[in-house]
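Q: Hi! First time doing this. I have a protein sequence and I read that you can turn it into a structure. Is that right? Here it is:
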Amino acid sequence: MKNIQYREMSEASFKQLVIETIQKEEDSIPFVYVDGVGIPTSFNGKAMVVKSGNRWVVDPVAEAVIQNVTGQGYDAMQRSKLDAATENLNRYGRGMTARRANMVHFYAAGTTDSFAERTRKPENSTFGLELKQSQLNEANEIVVRNTINAFDAKMAREGIAIPPSQEKAALVSIYHQCPRCIGDKTIRHLKNGNREGVLYEIQNDMDSQKFRSRRQREAELFGSDTPSVSAGGVSDTVDRGGNLQQPNKPQASVLDSLRNPPPLPRTVEELKAAFTVLQHANSVVQVAAYTRRDGTQVPAHTRGAPDGDSSNNVG
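A: Yes, that's right. Below is the predicted 3D structure, encoded as structure tokens:
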């Protein structure tokens, strides 16, 4: 059985990479806001209300983080707002209806659903809690540590050991946002040492359409055995079995050529050379056999354009 060659790093560097990767995707918000599907959220994308079985509940882990960094849990008003949000999620499910209902509890009057950026301004929040920067940094670290521990526990149950590495950072970032996206197929590919199979699952999980740009960045962080996948250029893709598929490389359009024309000739010599190339662009030139200066023989052959020495051209 083959093994994935992980790009390992120190534990401290790995943890910092995970924090930076998640923060880049989730942002870092010092108060509670309502996300796109109506879930009260804070820090680096930590949900304050979570699903437990078939019911939404106030997350005790998030409350413990608040307790840890501020020295106190939710007050009566904050708890009532989270309870109301939980009730709305249980009534409507995730989505725009729950979002609109929960915005009533978390935002000042006049903050509209049309402008997501306005919901992340502290002056619009009515939750009554805003962390200092040092508290926010500590909260982010606690959340990331909890995510890493939960991911490690899942891997341990499957008999998989992944060292601190770029690959693990990518998987932890996915797990932070969508635990179910590290599913059975990804687990199987990890066990089989099939890097390209894992890459396929990252790019094609159930949330890949909603979070296409994020999944692409996580795929690039995970990396491929084929350089073009992780180099940021035209990526190769893999099929469901983890086999590389080579897509057709896009051809430059006429519009691209007009936007980026070749440089114009600057001298008479350059102009003559350009004219000669144009003259023979669609013709075939037959070159007679000749001897190079080093004594080697070049047999007669044809070429698509002259080489500037017409003495050995025939025709």
